[in-house]
Amino acid sequence: MSTVLITGGCGFVGSHLARFLLERDYNVILMDLAVDERLVKDIKDKSLIVKVDITNATQLTEVFKKYRVDVVAHYAALLSSAADSNPHLGYKVDFEGVWNVYNAARATEVESVIFASSVAAYGPEVLQQAKENAYTVPQTLYGISKQFGEMLGLWFYRKYGVQFVAFRYASIIGPGRRNGGASAYSTLIVQKPAQGEPYEVSVREEDAMPIAYIKDVVEVTAVAYENIKKLKSRIYNVASLNPSPTAGELASRVKKHIPNAKIAFDPNPAITDIVKSWPRNLDTSRIQSELNWRPKYSNLDTLTSDFIREVKQHPEVFYI
């Protein structure tokens, strides 16, 4: 079975993807700079954990070569708020780091690279149903880096034959996501009440952004990789819900399952402005038609109840 190396492997998305792949008998390498084993404590004995900084091109290439990696799933990144607060570090991680990943893959004959793009790749010009072929200018450094990563991946694919796919993920929500990035409220509004804690939402009740549930995200990522040589397109939107729920609707749904949930709204203008710069909905017709994939958690009630159940059943892994 293929060996998959996941950058940012000990983080939120990386750990869930690793768990999904291990269940399907893939060999999994979790690569991270900040190795926090809490999110992977249930799978750390089934996978290999290596500490590597993606800004170190030499070290990265050595690891790819040593472990004979077949596919790299690139999830290591400095998120939107952090990158804008520290743009030099944002450039090192989100631009130089992406180049290093692709170039190391080429040099060591890695077959495929999966790139985690984002709804942040869109700018404010797209207000409703964003399609992959829309031309927009992102307003955050993080969003600009996602467009850069997509274009660079296409170049490595055309010039060197490195198989490539990029996913413009909606805000990925699910158990274990920490605070960080302007979209984090969409997870914490469920996560904190599920832990029995109050939560203050940093946007307005009427604000909305596209959402993808982590279980849908890891499934479609694996499906795309297993069909990567047949892909008609290379850049896909991924979302679970359409239309996107408002923050107020999310809060109401959480309170349906947790009647005593304490959720308050205290909008932060800086966070609100970032969220407003993203499209409200993502058009997912391309991935549905080309991969025949549909999200399993396209119902807000189903999504919320599953999320809450996971947090309560596995507090040793998902508590934040």
Key traits:
320 residues; 7-stranded parallel beta sheet
Characterise the protein shown here.
42% of the residues lie in helices and 17% in strands. The protein contains twelve helices and 13 strands. It has helices at 12-22, 57-66, 80-85, 87-107, 141-160, 185-194, 214-226, 247-257, 269-276, 285-291, 300-313, 315-318, and strands spanning 3-7, 27-32, 48-51, 71-74, 112-118, 129-130, 163-169, 171-173, 199-201, 211-213, 235-238, 263-265, 281-282. A seven-stranded parallel sheet has the order 3-2-1-4-5-7-11, sandwiched between helices. A two-stranded parallel sheet has the order 6-13. The model has no long low-confidence stretch (mean pLDDT 95).
Provide a concise account of the structure shown.
With 320 residues, the protein is α/β, with parallel strands linked by helices.
Our estimate of the beta-strand percent is: 15-25%
Q: What integer is the average pLDDT?
A: 95
Radius of gyration based on Cα positions: 18 Å
Distance between the termini: 33 Å
What fraction, in percent, of the residue positions are helical? 40-55%
**What form results from the Cα inertia axes?**
globular
Strands, total number: 13
Sheet having the most strands: 7 strands, parallel
Instruction: Tally the helices.
Output: 12
Strand order of the largest sheet: 3-2-1-4-5-7-11
* SSE run: EHEEHEHHEEHEEHEEHEHEHEHHH
The poorly predicted ranges are none
Structural class: alpha/beta
Q: Can you lay out the helices and strands and say which pair or pack?
A:
Layout: E1 3-7, H1 12-22, E2 27-32, E3 48-51, H2 57-66, E4 71-74, H3 80-85, H4 87-107, E5 112-118, E6 129-130, H5 141-160, E7 163-169, E8 171-173, H6 185-194, E9 199-201, E10 211-213, H7 214-226, E11 235-238, H8 247-257, E12 263-265, H9 269-276, E13 281-282, H10 285-291, H11 300-313, H12 315-318
Parallel strand pairs: 1-2, 1-4, 2-3, 4-5, 5-7, 6-13, 7-11, 8-10, 9-12
